[in-house]
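User: Sequence in, structure out. Go.
Assistant: Echoing your sequence, followed by the C-alpha cells.
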Amino acid sequence: SKAFIAGGRLLVGDAQGHVFALHETSGEPVREYKNDRPLGYIRDITVDNGICSAAADSYGMIVLAPDSGTWSESVYPAAFSAAAGAVATQSGTRYVLQPGANRVVAVDADGNQKVVFSGAPFAHLAVTRDKVIATAGTMLYAAPIPAYTPVDTVDLGVPVEALTAAGRDLLVSTTGSVER
C-alpha cells in the first residue's frame, strides 16, 4: 500500500482506508476516517486543497472530502463502473487513468469530465503546474492544462518504469536511466 502526508494528515492506502491527523503532540496519531466496508485496492493516492483522491483499481476513483467535521466519500464515475489505475490533481481538477478504457479523464470540481488522452494502454500519470502527462510503453504524452490540446508525444525508445512531477519538473524513469 502507499501512504501520503498532506495538510497535516497521513493518508494510508490500505484495505481499511485509514486517514490519520498528525499533530505536534507526544501522543498517538488520531484516526480521522475509517471506511467500515472498504472496497477496492488503493493503487495511487493524491491530495489537493484538502480533498483526497485515490485510485481504487476496479472499484474506481474514491474521493474523500471534509464535510462539517467529518469525511464524505464518493466514487467516480460509480462503484465498479470504470477501474482507476492512477490519480493526480491540480487546482481542483482530478485526473484519473482508466486502464480498462485506455484513457485518462479530467474531472473538474463540478463533476464535469473531459477525456485528455485515449487509445493507448496508459500506465503512469503525473501533473505539473501546466501539463498533464501520461505514459504508454515507450511513449510519453503531454497536454496543456486546461485546453488539453494539442497533445505532444515523445517516443523515449525504452519502456517507462516510473513517472513523477513536482512544480514544472517531470522525472521519468526508464530501464537504466532517469530523465528530467
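User: And one key feature?
Assistant: The chain has a mean pLDDT of 86.
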